[in-house]
Design a protein that fits this description.
Layout: E1 2-4, H1 5-10, E2 18-23, E3 26-39, E4 42-52, H2 63-68, E5 72-76, E6 81-85
């Protein structure tokens, strides 16, 4: 999961160590952390995440999170939807 520095600060997420982050837009500075949240009424505690010091968009889930937790994703380009299935 990727979260913004602003969200990490609001939620008081711990800095568990600096890491370079690479993506389509290039390389950026950030750090490892953990976040807890609820998704569809299911609580997820201490999920590893990356905090990007310069990213300002919506938090992003990685596909690995869904696989590791037994979820299937159904993407419909026709209907422009993403359905999360357990």
């Amino acid at each position: 999961m990727l979260v913004t520095k602003q969200i990490a600060n609001m939620l008081h997420l711990p800095n568990l160590g600096d890491v370079p982050l690479e993506g389509v837009g290039g390389q950026d500075e950030g750090y490892m952390s953990q976040i807890s949240f609820s998704l569809g009424g299911v609580e997820f505690d201490n999920v590893p995440c990356f905090v990007d010091n310069n990213y300002e968009g919506t938090p992003l889930f990685g596909y690995k999170f869904f696989v590791d937790n037994g979820y299937d994703l159904l993407v419909s380009q026709k209907h422009n939807t993403l359905t999360i299935l357990k």
